[in-house]
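Retro notes - structure team

What went well: the batch runner handled both jobs without manual restarts.
What didn't: labels got mixed up in the shared folder, which is why I'm recording both outputs here explicitly, each with its sequence directly above its tokens.

Job 1
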Amino acid sequence: MIQRIQSVFLLLLALAMLSVLALPLWHKIDPQSGQEIALTAFSLAPTSAQSSVPATGTWLIAALAIASAAVALIEISQYRSRLSQLKLGMLNVLLITATLGAAFFYASKGEQLLNVKLTGTYLIGFYLPTLALLLNLLANRFIRRDEQLVRSMDRLR
């Protein structure tokens, strides 16, 4: 049921996690050698042709982002069972945190590939899981509020 506010939050969470797949997460340029390296959800690869840095697959980030989006969509469909929604929300917190951890791991791995003295820049794709984590926490709060409302109505009966 999309008419509930937590469903809107969960839908936005799924969109944010799917956007991680399309947007770059991290980028570093070495001005001395002219080498560039970029991190996406699928690879840590050089963007310049003359680079000697080998490409590395980062499928873990993509798999975790897809799993988090899928759990959010399943959580929307479980609107009749708020307790299972809360359990799926807890699982989603773990998946989103693992996505952030994997992105940070591969970004730190990329830092070591080029000039160590220079730091890379985190791009919008890196911050989207943080937004998704916030949306998940808001959705869980409203799910808990609905559960408390139902329990208080049961006490009145």
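Job 2
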Amino acid sequence: MSARIMIVDDDPLVRSGLKLLLGGTPGLQIVAEAADGRAALETHTAEPVEMVLMDLRMPVMDGIAATAALKSGENPPAVIVLTTFDADDYVVRALAVGADGFLLKDTPPGEIVDAITGVLDGRPALSPSITAALIRQVVDGGDTGGTAAAQDALSALTDRERDVAIALSRGASNAEIAADLHLSVATVKAHISHIFTKLDATNRVQVAILVHDAGLV
């Protein structure tokens, strides 16, 4: 069965290009498009999709607000945000509200397909280097939420999970965390999975924001 995908972008050329690119990909089906976030919400409510490719800067309702609304509603789809700027503040904010990854609009076609299929399989579309850059923006950007709320959320973690959360919030890769904490990579992956579940997080940037707001980095 093909995954149903909606393309949301205010530029009709971008929408047409993505439809052309993805239209013949096995397992992917472009079933809807929208020119702004509000139209995307209305479309998803009428006919839910599994994946949304979401532009960030749009009129009426931008991609951040639309992503937040989709992720907090019924039948939340996976969301990959599209941007022309590498690791900008819009991307951080979109990931903070639950986006599953992001792609630059000039990403090679094969990598776009790989990212989409990866997210549909539960793997965030975020490279370690880009994640590290985004996390640096979080750490350098000052308070992004409530300290008490962040500390309360992190209290659900075990001591080892907290160590892993702090390490990944500094932009460390799984291999680097494993080496620093004398763990296997498989064990690190298991800890990260537990951290995401306990913190109701979908990506490392969300974890980094909580760790930062709790004053642990």
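One thing worth noting from job 2: The first strand starts at residue 3 and ends at 8.
We'll revisit the folder naming next retro.
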